[in-house]
Amino acid sequence: MDTAKGRLVGKHDAVFICQIAQAEKRLQLGQHHDSFEILNEVKKHLETLSDNDPKVYAHLSRAYATYYRRKEDYENFYKSSLQFLAYTPASELSQAEKKDWSIKLGMAILLGKNIYNIMELLDKEILQSLIGSDFEWLHVLLNALGRG
User: Fold this and answer.
1) How far is Cα 18 from Cα 12, in angstroms, rounded to an integer?
2) pTM metric for this prediction
3) 48 shares its domain with 7
4) What residue numbers bound the domain in which 148 lies?
């Protein structure tokens, strides 16, 4: 990792994506605390710079979402996932990924204690991936909760 960082001097976005990948790997290994520290460090550095590539923010938000989902922190998972979707065009996600994110976000709404901004999810194109699937009931339920 240090060798890669050395070759990427001056290419902040690439360094950040490498660090996020390292945090994701640690998360897969069950090293939650180490992963979270790396993500917070990247976030802190990103806040000091301007003109960062939106893909860096997308990767960071996805990694935070994964972390919070593993910790069963549904509120922060929901917030991080919405940030990921804000930085990631729906056209870049496969139909399976759209469905997966929709199901996870829908379950977070149902399981989270203080999630009130359901309309943000209802406005996302990815939610349409549930129509015609085994999870169409979730689409109907979320619409009923959000639109009344």
Assistant:
1) 10
2) 0.88
3) yes
4) 89-148
Residue 8 reports pLDDT greater than 60: no
Same domain, 69 and 93: no
CA distance linking residue 142 with residue 139, whole number of Å: 5
CA end-to-end span of the chain: 50
Separation between Cα atoms, residue 109 and residue 141, nearest integer Å: 11
User: Which parts of the chain are beta strand (E)?
Assistant: none
40 plus 9 within the same structural domain:
yes
Asked whether 76 and 63 are in contact (CB, 8 A), the reply is: no
| Letter string b/e over residues 106-136, b meaning 16 or more CB atoms within 10 A of that residue's CB | bbbbeebeebeebebbeebebbebbeeeebe
> Structure tokens of 5?
């960082």
Q: pLDDT tens across 87-124, in order?
A: 999 999 999 999 999 999 999 999 999 888 888 888 88
State whether 113 and 63 are in the same domain: no
